[in-house]
Amino acid sequence: MTALIIVDLQNDFLPGGALAVPESDxxxxxxxxxxxxxxxxxxxxxxxxxxxxxxxxxHPEHKEGDLITLHGLSQILWPVHCVQDTFGAQLSSKLxxxxxxxxxxxxxxxxxxxxSGFYDNGYRKSTGLSxxxxxxxxxxxVVVGLATDFCVKYTALDALKEGFKTTIVKEATRAVNLNxxxxxxxxxxxxQKGGIVLNLKSFVQEYKKLK
Length: 211
Ligand code: VGL
Ligand code: ZN
Prior knowledge:
Helix content is 24%, strand content 23%. The protein is of the alpha/beta class. The strands form 2 sheets. Strands 5-2-1-6-7-8 form a 6-stranded parallel sheet, sandwiched between helices. The chain has a two-stranded antiparallel sheet with strand order 3-4. β6, α3 and β7 form a beta-alpha-beta unit. The site of pyrazine-2-carboxylic acid has 8 residues, from α3.
């Protein structure tokens, strides 16, 4: 049984948003299409309080992009994004949401960031995603969404650690790209740690065979 995990397809990560990922709007039709090939669809949602300590403006002595140590963990400082109950935090209206069984929110504790949809960056708390999938006999996941070099990467790596066969579809994710080639680097790391990387065409061929 296969689940599609749609990571952070939120207005703030789309063109015009507070932390816009280049070309991120192009992945939405691909993700809508992919939903047809899986048994179950879930989503994650970055869901920060205004005083979240990953926001640069909550550290007057620092600026966006600075790397600091936050309660013992290394933390990149971001612009204010995905604040709870704002338009920027909403899932894109272009995303087909009727099949999404549950949305897992993360980044709600102001003291710790949460890139993965499974655990916060310090593995202090689980979001319940792993248990949710296992209870429904999911053994394979397909991780798509934003951003390849952060939340998609850490969600995929945690999925592998949790024992799920994990696939990435290249056309269904885009990188923030703090540095050039962050997309390729993230994809290579997922593959090197046991993930399967497919383009859309081979994914569709693979999954048609299974059905
Ligand atoms: C993300 C940076 C900060 C992401 C979330 O969804 O990849 N990146 N918060
Ligand atoms: Zn965030």
